[in-house]
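Morning. Coffee machine broken again, so started the prediction first thing and wrote up yesterday's gels while waiting. Chain of 458 residues, entered below exactly as on the submission form.
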Amino acid sequence: MTHDVVIIGGGSAGYAATRTARDAGADVAIVDHGPLGGLCILRGCMPTKAILRSAEVAALFRRAKEFGLSPVSVQADLSAIVDRKDRLVREFADYRIQQLQDPRLTLYQSRAVFRSPHEILAGDTILSAGSFILATGSRPSEVPIPGLTQAGYFTSDTILDLRTQPGSLIVLGGGAVALELGQFFARLGTKVTILQRGRTLLSEMDEDVGRALEASLIGEGIEVVTGAQLLHVTHDATGKTVWAVKDGREQSYVGEEILQALGRQPNIEGLRLDLAEVTVDDGRIVVDGMMCTSQAHIYAVGDVNDVSPIVHLAILQGEIAGYNATHADQPAKTIDHRLDTEVVFTDPQVAVLGLNESRAKADGIPYLTASYPFVDHGKALCLGATQGFVKLLTAPQTGEILGAEIVGPEAGELIHELIAVMYYHGTAADLLRMPHYHPTLAEILTYPAESIVERLGA
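Came back before lunch.
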């Protein structure tokens, strides 16, 4: 069988590429061995946000007396929480399956294996195409910690189906997934210990972000250990023990269960990318700004290239690849990382946009910065949500906003105003001139903007 474009993987990035190529009039085929739906829907964004909501409600109930209400006794039912999650995921997945079964597309529910740069084997069918787009996603990383496999552990995929709440949980990792799931179990009543290799949580972000979140998690009773060099794991009838070096001394941390949340790795096994003559570096497919691999007609989008493992950016990559694969006679589209955004759905939430101070210093980019704490913000005080801060980075001459960080209530929503301002290359003065309703959380964005405007003398 021959198609104009063959897309391997029907998740968020793959479907975005499919839709874009189809709308351009191409004959498009999707190869996906299932289960259909993609990581975001089945094991990522949607199921985790569904269960996190249950923990948020439980945490609010426990604060009833603080708001002048009668104390409420909260008893978590993890099995019921998982049931709710499963219902929502099924609805989301059913809709995606309907999209993939669109009669304007050809769906092959099988694994894909390259035979050459221009052919793949999908089940028993040989497919050729003018372009291929790889969107096979990722899976939890396999980390060689001695004794971990023997002790047994959960990953971010498998723990979503856990129906018996553990009494204690050791979380390996300090990234978004580790912190969201760690806080979730802590709020249900599990004793949680987080072991992070880096100096701070969320170590790829500015240090003040990780420190602010760490203080909040410790305030909830979570044990946070940073700078921990993991050594090995032992286990016996009483539980599992993770051994690590902390401050030059070997220490042990005991828990009933372990969550291994030390990242994810691209799904490339079995694709035979060697036969496709596609360059792979350290387990990830190498791409350029047009999402092209080392083969001009083969693209790779989403988690499989490990460039920006964030769903909305994976969708953008898919759209770029879908366009470039069907518009060879037009100037190619390229991805712009200026507006890259990431949100961590802990409480308080974390949202970062564009340039941060760490990268600006490393790259020698001049900037002005100002921040403002939620503890001094009226609406945050009314909500009883005063942890965290807002920080802006701007160009030192014009005040154009180059980046932002928010740690605080509804950070994932608040960041979108700053995305919009940055999209149009707006300045701190623009942000200050925009009307902000009172009292709202969004007003806090104007305070660091005002400080920067004053320093610019504008």
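The first strand starts at residue 2 and ends at 8. Going to sketch it on the whiteboard this afternoon.
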